[in-house]
Amino acid sequence: MPFFPVSFEELIDRFAALPGIGRKSAQRLAFHVLAMPEGEAEAFAETILTARRSVHTCPVCQNLTDGEVCPVCADERRDRSVICVVAEPRDVASLERSREYRGVYHVLHGVLSPMSHVGPDDIRVAELVKRVAAGGVEEVIMATNPDTEGDATAMYIARLLKPFEVKVTRLAYGIPVGSNLEFTDDATLARALEGRREL
């Protein structure tokens, strides 16, 4: 027997379907939405619909935008000879927070994953190849996650780009700043040793 009205249970189910939201968090969010003043709740719902209608992928880099092109592609100060390839739009935000990278991006919208039936045609690889083939690109930085799918995607793209004679690099992975060697796992230590550089 349900504890709540059907429409409220449906709202909980909608929140619970979001990534990273468990049943308890979904319930808290649903109670919060129900407690909002009606105007605020309507504005919240309208914001979701507006974002859904207006946000699309940038025709250049495949990042999310509500304009003709995304802000990075529109910025004339960015170095277009370097493309950083990431799996998801949220990865662009992470790299931008570092304030170190001044090149442009390419968002794949996923990684190769045979177990999940995700192949090259399911992610934005063809668009990247087209960009590199157009010329002017000197380096492609593979910034996919350091896991099996991320590494496989990076290797696949590196092989595809080989005929264009561009430098394909991979982000260095290793020990986080401020951590202790004692608590670092074996795989991270191995990567840190492989990626060592001269001082």
Please specify the SSE layout and strand pairing.
Layout: H1 6-16, H2 23-35, H3 38-54, E1 56-57, E2 64-65, H4 71-74, E3 79-86, H5 89-97, E4 103-107, H6 125-133, E5 139-142, H7 148-161, E6 167-170, H8 186-194
Parallel strand pairs: 3-4, 3-5, 5-6
Antiparallel strand pairs: 1-2
Helix pairs in contact: 1-2
Q: Tell me the helix content.
A: 40-55%
- The number of distinct structural domains comes to 2
Counting DSSP E segments of at least 2 residues, the number of strands comes to: 6
CATH topology-level fold name of the largest domain: Dna Topoisomerase Vi A Subunit, Chain: A, domain 2
Mean pLDDT: 89
Shape: globular
Unreliable parts: none
Structural class: alpha/beta
CA radius of gyration: 21 Å
Helix count, per DSSP?
8
| CATH architecture term of the largest domain | 3-Layer(aba) Sandwich
What composes the largest sheet? 4 strands, parallel
- Strand arrangement within the widest β-sheet reads 4-3-5-6
Oligomer: single chain
In terms of DSSP E residues, the strand content is 5-15%
Give an overview in words.
The chain has 199 residues and is α/β, with parallel strands linked by helices. α1 (6-16) packs across α2. It has helices spanning 6-16, 23-35, 38-54, 71-74, 89-97, 125-133, 148-161, 186-194; strands at residues 56-57, 64-65, 79-86, 103-107, 139-142, 167-170. It folds into 2 domains: 6-54, Helicase, Ruva Protein, domain 3; 57-170, Dna Topoisomerase Vi A Subunit, Chain: A, domain 2, CATH 3.40.1360.10. α7 links the parallel β5 and β6. A 4-stranded parallel beta sheet has the order 4-3-5-6.
